[in-house]
Design a protein that fits this description.
The chain is α+β, with helices and mostly antiparallel strands and about 200 residues long. The chain has helices at about 5-10, 40-50, 135-150; strands at about 15-25, 30-35, 60-65, 70, 85-90, 110-115, 125-130, 160, 165, 185-190. One of its GO terms (molecular function) is proteasome binding.
């Protein structure tokens, strides 16, 4: 018995094409796609992308068949499909742009640790303030500390100087660009308008 050549050389055109039923997050029903078994998963993603118009970058698209993720470089003929040839499409969540800062002290990381230098003294006073606090809050904090620690604050009024600029009590530390660990000086007297 001699096998005829036709058994060995059947044209491969017909039997490599097959249909997949694609389920995307945006479509309520399955989308039928015809594709070649010799195509890669990436090629399938491109086809889905063209049909679905989801504006999601290809590298964020994930395909699953029978619960298994399909990888871009796999050939479709090597993938396992369910009886209905269903493919689930999902999208990877966007990566956070900056790593989340884990605060151990319930927001304590937002506090600015500042040093206040009285005009008369050489000893700096450590205080903690929120960056969003107005400078006037520092005055209240110093008065509170003064009762406990006898800071010898000027009796006739005083104002704050930061980097040789007078600080506005009604503006926040953030507005004054005060940073962690900075020193604020106390000057006797009061600030007169228009100076």
């Amino acid at each position: 018995m001699v096998a005829s050549d036709s058994d060995h050389h059947k044209p491969p055109v017909e039997d490599t094409k097959f249909h997949l039923n694609i389920k995307t997050p945006s479509s309520k029903s399955h989308i039928p796609i015809e594709i070649d078994k010799n195509d890669t998963v990436l090629k399938l993603k491109e086809k889905i992308h063209d049909i679905d118009q989801n504006n999601v970058p290809l590298n964020k698209v994930m395909l699953h068949s029978t619960g298994t993720e399909l990888h871009d470089n796999q050939l479709l003929r090597d993938c396992e499909f369910s009886e209905k040839n269903e493919i689930e499409v999902s999208f990877k969540p966007p990566m956070p742009t900056a790593p989340a800062v884990v605060s151990g002290g319930g927001g304590a990381s937002k506090k600015l640790k500042l040093m206040v230098l009285p005009k008369s003294g050489t000893k700096k006073i450590p205080v903690e303030m929120n960056a969003s606090d107005n400078v006037g809050e520092l005055r209240k904090e110093l008065q509170r500390l003064n009762q406990m620690l006898q800071l010898h604050l000027p009796q006739d009024g005083y104002f704050f100087i930061y980097k040789q600029n007078v600080m506005d009590d009604d503006k926040s530390f953030r507005w004054h660009h005060v940073s962690q660990g900075d020193t604020i000086e106390i000057f006797n007297g009061s600030v007169t308008g228009g100076s």
